[in-house]
Task: inverse folding
């Protein structure tokens, strides 16, 4: 004879199943994102910088990124740096899904790295602007200067390099005017005292306060200097277009407007970062 079982009574296991079936799921409470005290995140082959903005001499933002991935190293073949012209670096970056940063963006990147230099991974990248491993910190930039029309051109087109293939399709070609009448080779601290030179340097560096580069030069143990291509030529009649370079040699921390468009140096790529 089977034991009697009241059909209205269920086992504990069955009861729990019934209860759980009718318990409404817990609502997910939205969590506000925590503001990062350190704006730099290290991840893999890149360092991610947040809220980057380049401003012109009038305080207008002309290049900005919520998040930007900066390569931890320059382009290399083995341990040796790969030297290319600014144009061929821009082409190579496009093929890699990157872009070559403008002079202004590089200045803002280096200023941010300097702020966070106590992080050894970040300081290692910062030091490459002093010495990339070959005794020099030169980096090619995605900016040229047309001294004929007195314009700084960030993210120039292929035609600016007398090339047919397009470049910088992902970046806005930004043209910023300047007056060259008083521009001359000088320590950066002296150049910034001249109103015309200061305006030019703000258009070039994208920094509201380019004085930060003086402090970075001191950190590298080298004076920050600006170097123009007059080289004994009449400044006012100089109408050539030149590439710009950024970094240290064995004596100074240079902002160089001296080199031809076909001169080659090292570079690093950057990209827009996804959240």
Result:
């Amino acid at each position: 004879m089977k034991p009697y079982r009241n059909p209205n009574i269920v086992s504990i296991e069955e009861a729990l199943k019934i209860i759980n079936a009718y318990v409404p799921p817990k609502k997910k409470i939205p969590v506000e994102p925590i503001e990062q005290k350190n704006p730099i995140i290290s991840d893999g082959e890149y360092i991610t910088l947040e809220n980057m903005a380049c401003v012109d001499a009038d305080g207008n933002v002309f290049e900005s990124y919520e998040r930007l991935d900066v390569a931890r190293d320059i382009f290399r073949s083995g341990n040796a740096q790969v030297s290319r012209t600014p144009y061929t670096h821009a082409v190579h970056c496009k093929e890699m899904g990157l872009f070559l940063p403008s002079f202004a963006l590089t200045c803002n990147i280096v200023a941010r790295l300097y702020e966070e230099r106590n992080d050894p991974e970040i300081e290692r990248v910062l030091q490459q602007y002093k010495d990339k491993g070959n005794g020099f910190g030169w980096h090619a930039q995605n900016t040229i200067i047309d001294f004929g029309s007195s314009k700084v051109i960030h993210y120039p087109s292929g035609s600016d390099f007398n090339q047919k293939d397009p470049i910088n399709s992902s970046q806005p070609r930004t043209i910023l005017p300047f007056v060259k009448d008083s521009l001359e080779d000088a320590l950066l601290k002296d150049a910034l005292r001249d109103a015309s030179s200061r305006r030019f340097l703000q258009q070039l560096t994208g920094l509201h306060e380019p004085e930060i580069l003086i402090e970075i030069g001191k950190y590298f143990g080298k004076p920050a200097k600006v170097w123009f291509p007059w080289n004994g030529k009449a400044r006012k009649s100089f109408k050539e277009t030149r590439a710009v370079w950024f970094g240290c040699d064995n004596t100074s921390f240079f902002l160089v407007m001296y080199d031809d468009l076909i001169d080659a140096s090292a570079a690093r790529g950057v990209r827009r970062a996804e959240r």
Notes: The helical segments are 12-22, 86-95, 103-115, 120-127, 188-191, 195-205, 212-220. Residues 1-38 have pLDDT under 50 and may be disordered. DSSP finds seven helices and 13 strands in the chain.
